[in-house]
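Table S2 (text version). Query chain:
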Amino acid sequence: MMWNYYNGGWGLGIFGWFFMVLMMALPVLFIVWIVYELTGSHRGKERSAIEILNERYAKGEIDKEEYESKKKEISKSTA
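Corresponding structure-token output:
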């Protein structure tokens, strides 16, 4: 008599191993994801106000007069 998954010889066969590994891995992956989100290690470094101002000036969003006045304001607030 040949054993197969219908008469109890192999359980779910290859799929049984797959689901067993999946059920063990999901809680571990969930905990890793929670720690990753809570620590914020994936977020990029925040840019300073002067970096944003320089970028806006380089893109042409503001003119030289506005750039200079905002630069003075930023230097006053950081000093």
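Notes on Table S2: The chain has a mean pLDDT of 81. Residues 5-39 form one domain.
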